[in-house]
Amino acid sequence: MNKLALYDTMSGKKEPFHPRNPPLVSMFVCGPTVQSELHLGHARTYIFFDALARYLRHLGYDVYYLMNITDIDERISQAAARTGEDPLEYSHRMVSSMMRDLESLNIHTVSRFEPVSAHVDEAIRQVNALLEKGFAYKADGWVYFDTARFKRWGRLSHQSKNDLSLRPLELSPRKRNLNDFALWRPEILVDGLWPSPWGVGSPGWHIQDTAVTIPILGPQYDIHGGAYELVYPHHEAEIAEAESVTGARPLVRHWVHTNLVKSDGLKMSKSLGNVVTVRDTLRTFSASEIRLASLSIHYRKEADLSGLASARRRLHGMRTIAKRFAGRAASVEPSLTPFERALNDDFDTPKALAWAEGALKSASKEADRDRAAAVAVPAIEGMKILGVDLFEGA
User: Which of 26, 77, 108, 355 lies at a C-alpha separation of 20 to 30 Å from 250?
Assistant: First the structure.
């Protein structure tokens, strides 16, 4: 179990994976803000962490995988207003759509989904605790985290005080410091407002995540995942909040982030209007093709949409060979050493896939059926671990 190494955003290098209480592994991944449908940028992140959870379970770990769903946000309220729906009804409908997309992508490893609207009381408790400990302050119905009080602010994103001064958060004359962020907001943009000691309002984005994780995973857990764009300020803020509330550090042992998916050379994002949705993509490509395209590029490298067509051709070739060995898996003891060696090295899925494809091509040239099966079956099993069934549709 102890050969896996993952690149840790905090340390900036590959670190041996050592969970706090093996064989238990606790993993949290930031889920979407459900103002619209999932796009391929979301899909890349969720496919990666689904594959990682599958592999950890293959190694013998007992993985508890938690994902939050941001259903409190002004963008949701704005989207609901455009459709004439109640914001919470709108978000409920979009959550159902999200779950269908995840199911369609063969993402089945999440142990628990948690809407942040169910954790507002916990968010209020944490904000109160931060005020009592002097890490937060009130200002005209708002509550802000005082980043000057948290000495490790900027450590995850590797930014100096000078760097941080150039990246102010939430410009407001109410704040003491440019980098302070809202813990509680009395905004009229967000519907479904909650009473609090500071007036009616809603929890800030960052405190929503710690309100979910601390009661469920505790003050410390093993893996925190998400897209790279969340490192600052979102994940930086989570560290500051959680470690200040609980006094336990580090909050997370391994910070793991996926890189961007680009569309026409630009980051795919809802704000830029260049998103390609999962639903639309599934009308042309299968879930296995989308998964293969996503995993064919290392998770820390940028990706684009060009890989889908090549993934289709690649998967067809692998399945054409694999179908010759249907029914032989039970008779072969698969040796996955090269596959595991690739994944143990910072989850190098491109190298693992190249090994599987090469093994299948070698098997297709082997005249002896038993020797061919001994080569092909491990590759087929390895692909299954990554969530791609080579017998499906073959």
Answer: 108
